[in-house]
Amino acid sequence: MNATKFVVLMIFVGVVCAKVGARQLEEVSKENKIDISDPKTATTNGLGAELAVTASTSAYHSEYSGANAAAGPKGPSADGYGSTYGYTSGYVTADGPNANAYSSSGAYGQTGAYAAAGPGGATGSGYSDGYAGSSAGGSISDP
After folding, report:
1. How many CB atoms lie within 10 A of CB 34?
2. pLDDT tens digit string along 10-31?
3. Would you say residue 140 lies in a domain?
4. How many domains does the chain have?
5. Looking at the keywords, is Signal present (predicted)?
6. Which of 65, 89, 91, 96 has the greatest CB tally within 10 Å of its CB?
């Protein structure tokens, strides 16, 4: 592949990365309220007669990417990079039988690449890393 074709290819990759990176910040929120009534005549195992539950969830997501291409005295070079981040969380609260619960999760990723070509040959490298995690828990006890 000659240097001109390489530069054209890297510019094309840069345009694609720029289009992916043009996504807008996105934020989502949602809240629900659920009321549950359990009459005192029902068997509740001593955990209480009335239960009101509120549940809430939210999510956040963002992306960023970019690309560069250049022609220099040693030959053309190009690089591209991007990252994404997301997080969701939720909780449940209960009035009555001393109950609660929660959950959350998150994820993060990052990638990058570099390529160059010159009279002595071509070189390239790339990297990628990411993280994902979640947690949940809750408790209930006799009043």
Report:
1. 11
2. 565 555 444 444 444 444 444 4
3. no
4. 1
5. yes
6. 65
pLDDT digits (tens, 9 = 90+) for 69-104: 777 777 777 777 777 777 776 666 665 556 666 777
Answer whether 0.70 is exceeded by the pTM. no
Asked whether the beta carbons of 81 and 111 are under 8 A apart, the reply is yes
Q: What is the pLDDT of residue 133?
A: 81
Look up the domain containing 8 and give its range. Answer: 3-40+47-70+82-119
Alpha-carbon separation of residue 72 from 4, 54, 121, 126, 130 (angstroms)? 12, 61, 14, 21, 33
Determine phi and psi for 5, rounding to 5 degrees. Answer: -65, -40
Residue 10 lies in a domain: yes
